[in-house]
Amino acid sequence: MKLKNYVLTGIAALSFGGAMLANQSNADASSWHYGALPKVLRGNWYAQGSHNKSGETITKYFIVGFGSYSDTSSHVVNRWKYLGNHYYKIQYLEGAGSNSLHYFNRHHITMNTFWHSYYR
Questions:
Q1: Are the beta carbons of 13 and 73 closer than 8 angstroms?
Q2: Who is most buried in 10, 47, 65, 84, counting CB within 10 A?
Q3: Is residue 30 part of a domain?
Q4: What's the rounded Cα separation, in Å, for the pair 92 and 109?
Q5: Residue whose C-alpha is closest to residue 45's, from 66, 62, 61
Q6: Is 70 a domain residue?
Q7: For residue 91, what are the domain limits?
Q8: Does the pLDDT at position 88 exceed 60?
């Protein structure tokens, strides 16, 4: 009789533990955010090697190029995600594509655009 109680208790404990493992939710740190861009990215960023002060202006919801050789069109940010190690992925609205951004410090970022390196 004691053995039967031990076996039933063991089966109940294993089934409860299996149910707990099956119901785990995965936390995804790199989920898409639809709000404003992070504050550390905002501001005027000037292109390295640009003699005419070309660059990018990053606001809460826009990335705008300025200067004669830059892309002077305004891109509306649809969503962004933090990839880790100061890397960001920014996706634009209306099929304008996406952009990768690496934030080194408050004076230096890189983006996969025409000038690549930007400084404040």
A1: no
A2: 47
A3: no
A4: 19
A5: 66
A6: yes
A7: 39-119
A8: yes
Contact 92, 37 (CB under 8 A): no
Q: Decide if 74 is inside a domain.
A: yes
Exposure letters 46-62 (e unless 16+ CB within 10 A, then b): bbeebeeebbbebeeee
Structural domain total, the chain: 1
- Tell me the pTM: 0.70
Tens-digit pLDDT profile for residues 94-108 = 878 899 999 999 999
**What would the two tokens of residue 94 be?**
């209306």
**What is the pLDDT, as a whole number, of residue 115?**
73
Q: Which two tokens stand for residue 47?
A: 């292109």
Confidence of residue 16 (pLDDT cuts 50, 70, 90): low
- CA gap 18, 35 in Å, rounded: 38
Which residue in 97, 94, 115, 118 sits closest to 106, CA to CA?
A: 118
Does some domain include residue 14? Answer: no
